[in-house]
Write a structure and sequence with these properties.
- About 70% of the residues lie in helices and about 0% in strands.
- It is built from 20 helices and no strands.
Length: about 400
């Protein structure tokens, strides 16, 4: 299905600031322990090869990453106490927060420049995701697309980022390519619906939203984005595995879709049109079933709730509200001091242990975030129990 788009008339409201805040907090909770900066080059810069075979040297990224992996040791786990002490004593202060943000921004700019210098679609995409300068950022996206024009991962990030400021990029062209190469992804069709609606094409927007509820998949490429940053840092820095993964998780938190546009569109249109309510409901049911990350699943439930309120379906609405309550009660959302400490320790071990980290992302892509959370909880607890005689084990 091809769509011809007209010039855009509106902009989206961004929630990127909230994502940046989350990423900064992650980095404050787990600051790199060695004093090395993310932008620091390796002693002998690695040459890389793209996944598509476009060679920029002799050593593939995967091989370099394997060479750089360190075995998770007792010493690594005992270092957790230093990180916990930093968080308890200094990590939450306003003065420290300001200082960490300044360091974070400076390191991010250095890292972006390092990535941008490598003629490789993956590195250039990573540079674009780190760049906050609109014109330069979209030039980098354009360069990455030119290097690999049929890669849905590259196109997704370009379009998802561009959706907030389409006047600064060839949004319609990129979106059309994304539909061509990732047309079974419901998230792509929601972006198309938003675009058509903003252009005044109500009928086209409705058709796109209906398509979002019947395709075969729903993905926003979060685990792939984590892997992108970790691989890029492995090939361009001397950061150890823990440091690379910590940065990768933090940076990926800034690279998600802008769900505010999803919710606003369905809330506004469902009030007046039952076809819209049904289309948003179908998308919500689809995304709840097929989306892998829990934020997307939460948004899916919210969209179901909005649609069912306007359809006056009290029975199904009650069932969705019950699902939302169950969703919030799951272990990974508990905010008790004990649960937070367990989460910090679990995430520290996941970032430090290559085996558990890779298993976490594999499980995430296969079965979803909650399943990956359960996997990492089991694996980290097993590791701790195997070393519970150590005095540093909490």
């Amino acid at each position: 299905m091809r769509i011809v788009f007209a010039p855009r008339s509106k902009r989206f409201v961004s929630i990127a600031g909230a994502l940046i805040g989350a990423a900064v907090l992650i980095l404050i909770f787990y600051p790199p322990p060695t004093g090395k900066q993310v932008g620091d080059p390796p002693t002998q810069p690695a040459e890389v090869e793209t996944n598509s075979g476009e060679s920029a040297g002799s050593a593939p990224i995967a091989e370099f990453a394997l060479d750089a992996v360190q075995v998770f040791t007792v010493k690594d786990l005992c270092a957790y106490g230093e990180h916990k002490q930093h968080f308890d004593s200094e990590g939450a202060s306003d003065e420290n927060l300001d200082e960490e943000i300044k360091k974070f921004v400076a390191n991010m700019e250095d890292t972006r420049d390092t990535f941008a210098e490598i003629e490789n679609a993956e590195f250039v995409l990573a540079a674009a995701l780190l760049d906050k300068n609109g014109e330069r950022r979209f030039d980098l996206f354009g360069d990455a697309i030119a290097m690999n024009p049929s890669n849905p991962f590259v196109l997704w990030h370009a379009v998802a980022t561009c959706s907030n400021k389409p006047i600064q990029c060839p949004y319609d062209e990129w979106l059309q390519s994304l539909i061509e190469f990732d047309g079974q992804n419901s998230e792509v069709w929601v972006l198309a619906a938003i675009r058509l609606r903003d252009n005044g094409d109500a009928a086209g927007a409705l058709r796109a939203m209906q398509q979002a509820g019947v395709v075969t998949d729903s993905r926003v490429y979060w685990p792939e984005t984590v892997e992108l940053f970790e691989r890029s840092l492995a090939a361009t820095s001397e950061l150890n595995h823990y440091e690379r993964v910590t940065w990768a998780f933090g940076l990926s938190a800034m690279s998600g879709p802008i769900y505010r546009g999803y919710v606003d569109m369905c809330r506004d249109e469902s009030v007046y049109d039952r076809q819209w309510a049904n289309a948003c409901l179908s998308y919500g049911v689809h995304a709840e079933q097929y989306a892998k990350d829990m934020l997307a699943q939460s948004i899916a439930l919210s969209m179901q709730k909005i649609a069912l309120e306007n359809l006056d379906d009290e029975k199904r609405l009650a069932a969705v509200i019950a699902k939302q309550e169950d969703f919030r009660s799951r272990g990974m959302f508990r905010a008790t001091p004990s649960a937070l400490q367990q989460t910090m320790l679990r995430e520290f071990i996941v970032a430090s242990n290559p085996h558990i980290y890779e298993g976490f992302l594999t499980e995430f892509k296969r079965s979803g975030e909650y399943s990956a959370f359960e996997y990492s909880t089991r694996e980290t607890q097993a590791w701790i129990e195997a070393h519970e005689h150590l005095p540093c084990i909490p």
